[in-house]
Specification:
Helices cover 36% and strands 21% of the residues. The protein contains 6 helices and 5 strands; from the N terminus they run βαββαααβαβα. A 5-stranded mixed β-sheet has the order 2-3-1-4-5, with helices on both faces.
Length: 172
Amino acid sequence: MNDQMVLGLVIVSAPKSLLTDEGFEHVKVFSAAELEEHFDVKGSLHFDRGEDNLLSGHGKAGFAYWTKLFALTEEEIEETNWDHNEALHLLIKKLRTFVRTHGLNVAKWHDFNVEFDFVRPWCVQLFTPASPPMLFNLGIGDMKWLASMEMEFSYWARRDQWMDLVMEAAEK
């Protein structure tokens, strides 16, 4: 299943009603263009408030979603010998390289963070298929790095349609 593990640097805005601003005036939702300009990066997959909600697969989103996705190459999959822990470590290594290469850091995040409202700020999410279930351990070194970057880690087992979408986006 290492060939279906995808790691994402994920940023999700707070929700804001699409129908009325009443009660939501204070909520500031970012757009992918604003985020990408601030960080000088391109995401793999995103939608802005009012666009199709790719997470649910139907309806317009009342929030913004942005992610940069990472997947393993065929060679890396073989290198892991199908060990989920090693695969996760390699994915985090790819994320670390991306963060370093693009000069992303906590200070740059906080500069962006003060302008907008978030429910999932600057976090790392592992996407895997819902079935069969997967067990893995996040190594201490990787946890320390995530903590130093003020990034939370989460895991999301998803159905085939979402996994097909993130796999395709990660391979670009």
